[in-house]
Write a structure and sequence with these properties.
By secondary structure, the chain is of the alpha/beta class. It contains eleven helices and 16 strands. The longest helix has 12 residues. The radius of gyration is 23 Å and the shape is elongated.
Length: 347
Amino acid sequence: MNQKLLMSRCLLLAKKGKGKTSPNPMVGCVIVFNNRIIGEGYHKGFGYSHAEVEAIKNVKDKKLLKKSTLYVNLEPCNHYGKTPPCTDLIIEENIPNVVIGSIDPNSKVSGKGIEKLKKNKINITLGVLEKECMELNKRFFCYHLKKRPYIILKWAESADGYISPHNQIKGSIFWITSKQTNIISHKWRSEEDTIAVGINTINNDDPELTNRFWTGKSPYPVVIDPKNKLNLNSKLLKRHKKIYHFIDKKIVESNHRSIKIDFNNSIKELLSNLYKDNISSILIEGGRITIQKFIDSNFWDEARLLVGEKKIENGIKSPSIRGISWIEKKINVDKLYISRNHLSNNL
């Protein structure tokens, strides 16, 4: 069977764990004997069995493993974490061939799993659909290589370039895009660890910051609040068991949820704190000042701009990114523009 086709199957399986595996990667595994898939599995969520374990478990006739090839989109682990090393199980089952999409960027693994398998005379094929494998786990790679969460900027703007009207009623939300697009936005939330907004967005709009239009977990809110002005009756405090509330380190008193940072170096400190807490992705949703600060500091990896049909005519101008190219897509009556930043800052 075609190696790329089988690796594509691994990636398809791996995607089933999207939004559930962090801080672990999404991994799928396929086991083949005589050009026939005899077992497959994927990592269902953090703390659950790894993909290789699931695939081996699903092989009915274990005797066939000694003559089979195992395909996996990420290097098998060789260290103890929530589960035992996958390399040990592969060696124990005498699987002679292993095809790997990409090397694991985690320093605890990074080549060591491959080395261990080779020492046990297992044939290794590396780099099949490597680019696609790395793209699937872009959050995981960013976390380990850049030592910070993967940063996604997301905002909606009107057809005439405004992010919200000046006369917006306090505590209300002005929907720029359609209901279908709003559902997709909430799906995006379910795929990330955290969602960040500035204090003006919290106090003016009083958002829930949940993915109530979609299934799955909601991201942890990150509130950027230099002067500690967070309203303790805010909806997000009622909807979430945990939030990250960043205030200026100069403030003497603060509530028990607060994290004090130096706002002269706020983005780096904020990202460093999230990295230390095993947060591998952050969705920056607003408002304009917060998004623009990440843009100006060149701390962003991906931008998602939604443009609706409505015109506001007099409002708050949307954030501005210059010198980049956009990929345009259509969502119902709205437009989605996506861009990637390949020169984003590290910590």
